[in-house]
Amino acid sequence: MNNGNPVINGDLTESGGLRNPYITRNQDGNFYITATDMRSSKGRGSNRSIVLMQSSDLIHWKSSNINFETQFPGMFSGVHAI
User: Fold this and answer.
1) pTM over the 0.70 mark
2) What pLDDT does 55 receive?
3) Is residue 18 part of a domain?
4) Residue 25 binned pLDDT confidence (cut-offs 50, 70, 90)
5) Is 35 a domain residue?
6) Range of the domain at 53
7) CA gap 10, 24 in Å, rounded
8) Which terminus of the chain is less hemmed in, N or C, by CB atoms within 10 Å?
9) Distance (Å, rounded) from C-alpha 50 to C-alpha 43?
10) What does the alpha-carbon distance between residue 25 and residue 48 come to, in Å, rounded to a whole number?
11) What is the mean pLDDT of residues 30-52?
12) Phi/psi of residue 46, nearest 5 degrees
C-alpha cells in the first residue's frame, strides 16, 4: 500500500506520534480514525490530545486535534502520570 511510504505522517499530531488508533468505515463511504496523540518516548505526560481523521481512499487524510489542555484549562492540575 502506498509503495511502502507512510500513509499518516507525525506532522498531523502535536506530539509527533499516534497511539491506540481505531479505524471505521461509515455509511457515507469514508474512513475515520480516532487516535491518541502521544509519543511513547515523551511518556504519558504527552497524552493531551485526541486526533480525528477522515479519508475517502485510506491514503489522503484530513485531520483535527482536540487538545484537552487548551479546551479545558486546569483539567490536568494535580494529575500525575503513572
Assistant:
1) no
2) 94
3) yes
4) very high
5) yes
6) 2-67
7) 20
8) C
9) 16
10) 26
11) 77
12) -85, 0
Task: Enter the C-alpha cell of residue 49.
Answer: 490530545
Asked if residue 76 belongs to a domain, the reply is no
Q: Is residue 74 situated within a structural domain?
A: no
Residue 50, C-alpha cell as written in the block: 485526541
Give the ranges where the chain is alpha helix by DSSP (H).
68-71
The single residue listed with the C-alpha cell 502520570 is 81
How many distinct structural domains can be found in the chain? 1
Instruction: Retrieve residue 70's grid coordinates.
Output: 487548551
Burial classification of residue 31, based on how many CB atoms lie within 10 Å of its CB (0-12 exposed, 13-18 middle, 19 or more buried): middle
- Band of pLDDT at residue 66, cut at 50, 70 and 90: confident
d(C-alpha 5, C-alpha 37), whole Å: 21
